Amino acid sequence: MAKKNLVIVESPTKAKTISRILGSDYSVVSSMGHIIDLPQKKLGVDIESDFEPEYEVLSGRQKLLTSLKKEAKDIDNIYMATDPDREGEAIGWHIKDWIFKKKKVYRVVFHEITSSAIKEAFSHPREFDENMVQAQAGRRILDRLVGFFLSPLLWKKIGRGLSAGRVQSVALRLVVDREKEIRAFVPQEYWEIEAELAKDSSSFTAKLDKIDDKKVEIKNKEYADNLVNDIKNKQFIISDIKKKERKRNPYPPFITSTMQQEAFNKLGNNATKTMIVAQQLYEGIDIGEENPVGLITYMRTDSTNVSVEAMKDLREFILKQYGKGYLPDEPNVYKVKKLAQEAHEAIRPTSILRSPESMKQFLSPEQFELYELIYKRFIASQMKPAEYLVTSVLIQADKYLFTASGTILIFDGFTAVYNKGENEEEEEEKKSAIPLLEKNDILNLLNLLPSQHFTKPPPRYSDSSLVKALEEQGIGRPSTYAPIIQTLVLRDYVRRIKGYFHATELGFKVCDLLIEYFPKIMDINFTALMEEELDEIEEGRLDKIKVLKEFYAPFKSSLDFAQTNIKKEVIVTDEICPNCQKPLIVKWGRKGKFLSCSGYPECKFSKSITTKVKCPQEGCTGELVERRSKRGFFYGCTNYPKCTYTAKALPDNNDKDKE
Description:
This protein is α+β, with helices and mostly antiparallel strands. It has six domains: about 5-130, Rossmann fold; about 155-185 and about 460-555, Topoisomerase I, domain 2; about 190-250 and about 385-455, Topoisomerase I, domain 3; about 260-380, Topoisomerase I, domain 4 (Orthogonal Bundle), CATH 1.10.290; about 580-605, no CATH class; about 610-659, no CATH class.
């Protein structure tokens, strides 16, 4: 008997989970992501006709399209159950527009893959949201215009096989600018003086803060030693004690960016790995029940909203598990950036009753760790603040003012469940407690401890801090943070070394070229404005064509200037071609930097640039060279394929990159 309903989703895992929930009357199939898109080998945008896109069936997807047509032939109802964001809306709309023009297609949207959520969504289908589709098309066309026209300029100036992207290029600028700051940084010496003080048998440490009511600045050892010699004979008297209670509020439930940041900080996961694992938790896990179940809500979101039902269940759970003292009188409310986000939810467990421990046997270690992080963060978000007693002590030693502070936890509040860790806000809690003191107490000086320090350059970006910077600057959106970073690494514009991003020589070249000829494209504020305008298209307040026209006119002017003025950079080396005795020059290609004969194309000699490090493989006489593949940068042997040695770092460096 033929089934009456066809459901189309993106992934096979999602299809499997939903199929078991809906039952035998529904045929659930996967589109495997986009089927219809802009062509891969040409611009595919008619600039003269209001930027009309020329969509086509992607290479290798024709069979899938034919299969969908066949599946739908005698079907009464067709449901498009693609993801609840712009990309999902566009995937579904394209399939409908391409093969189901004469059939009624229902759009169903859900933010969690559970039996109740799926059945509720299918009982209330809606029409496609044209504004969401137009916003996705606007982003796709903008990205195509930039990538299609800028990449050939990089080939002309630097080397073939390079590419540029609208948002990725600005993200690259962040990393390159930080690298320039680090290289230009000159450390400044400074000293601190701490006094180890005691009252009776209790001791604590205070730091020199002021001299004659002026902030102390100690720039060298000589001055520090002079101060120590003068201070050691002074009497230390408590001049003031202040005690105040301080509250630390809980963190909001996760959105995409904060989940990626915390997964890096606590679990060491890069953004791409976090999103892969989150997708698995969202799409469905077999937990021994009748149907697989999605353990978390949709993982691409920038809303901290929580549904009424989930909030009710969570508050009941907190009351039962932790008691009334931990439950606020009213639910904690967190700000939502835009009105359009209010329909979305934060990333949370689909059921608060599925504790991480009860799910552990069904999850991989990576799935368990991320689920536990999401679960605990969600609980903590609706608990009372933690409360501390902060004691600040001022100690006078003649003209020298020392300060000390200590923090005591009064009420643990949300930290009973979730403590962020490694955060500036928590530094106070780590300080030693202050003993019982009173004003005018005279203290015993046990020791004076001068210590040398140097100012430090700003830190390089990690997955966590780069995602945070992208979000704060308004660059990209939840679905794009991980792909942006992955693209920069795969292009070898940046390298992830010990978890931190280092801009490469190639990254510098690409960034500097784009800033010189396309300052607007590389302007952070301009890129953020484009993101806002795409949001406004989705909200129905801006016209897509107007946005594209306003972008393209100045872009075309910059493009024309660059095409006329960019000249190929030629770096001549001291090495001579063994075939024709002409100088070898440096070139860039898909696999990185190499040496080529300046007599090309008459002479086609080329060779890799070695690191001068011998291959560690026993019996091999080769040297290691830098190479690039689809998986990123690595070192390989010049004797390949005879020697297949590869490494992410040179042999004398035992530190492993975080992947």
